[in-house]
Amino acid sequence: MSVSGIDEVTYGVEDLDTCARFFADWGLNKVSEQADEVVFETLNGCRVVLAAIDKPGLPPAIESGSTVREVVWGVSSEADLALYSERIANDPGFVEGNGRIGCTDPNGLAIRLQVTRKRELDIECSGHNTWQTKGRINKPAPIYERATPIEVGHVVFFVTDVNACEAFYHDRFGFQASDRYPNRGAFLRTAEEGGHHDLFMLQLPAPRAGLNHVAFTVRDVHEVFGGGMHISRSGWATEIGPGRHPVSSAFFWYFKNPAGALIEYYADEDQLTGEWQPREFEPGPTVFAEWAIAGGIDGHTRRQQHVEAPQGKFLTDKPKEGGQR
Known about the structure:
VOC family protein; GlyoxalaseI/FosfomycinResist; Glyas_Fos-R_dOase_dom; 2,3-Dihydroxybiphenyl 1,2-Dioxygenase, domain 1
């Protein structure tokens, strides 16, 4: 019995039209639209719900303004759902009905569980050629003009008590620690075997509750780049990236999200098993990013923002100084 990952994320937003335009550019498929709610899906059926911030029935917000209001986690079966229901029945905000159970976590966030509605996929991804392993033979690596995210891979929140939150997700749902910033941050995966983290919680020096980012898994590093440049061409602002995380090994690109905080494309994270032993890190810029591009890449010139593009057909076509010789 284990949680299988994120099935749905609900935002409460101040500007529904702008947020809907952003998520269409992000590469999600719009499946329904009402005056106060727009619903999108990733390739595997993971849902992103954009709800008007004052829509009746939305769970309480953990911070002001546009932000995530609810995270829905998937489980394998109705039997699993019943067992988890017993574990959280006495927790604050317990609810049950319409195929879901839920409660409020120690940070004040509404969490729900349901039998997963995500679809199995068979997707072709680029192989990587290393010195010893040749994963791509007689085939060039792909170039993406935009991203079509596979799923919501993880969520990251600022929390008021990281140790209490880690204990809650471990004791109630069996989440496993992958790595930690002692007493400051916890990277958790939903099961012993899986990607590096499905949930990361960070306690700031002045603790507060809030959203840091929602991350979308794409096929490979090439889709991180292609997706990011499309978002840049569409006029949305980079926060940082592209770059690479040392802790999870993932390639990333973060953008500012009109629905709240940040949003990330990522690929190629570490895969862990029960044999993995959590490491401890001291927070810092070089722990966050092995390397990163400030301001992002311009989607038109394919160069770093505000850097002049090459003028010739080849990079070596440079104008001669002092006239023709």
